[in-house]
Model the fold of this input.
Amino acid sequence: MNTMCARVVGTVALAMLLGVGGCAGMSTQDRNTAIGAGVGGVAGNVLGGGGVLGTAAGAVVGGVIGHEASKK
Done:
């Protein structure tokens, strides 16, 4: 079960990175927000044991961090 979960998380992370790479028209702040949300979602999924709440919380926190980190 853990191997399957790891493969799913890896596949989702790869799909998100490829999707973000296709958003060339986004501002730097928007792009950093999307990347932060993706990375945070994956981290939240792993740390939360694969639960939806952990994934959503990680995505929110990662998006906020990515958004705020790109402000000057």
In short: The two ends are 44 Å apart (CA to CA). Residues 2-69 form one domain. Residues 9 and 42 are 6 Å apart (CA to CA).
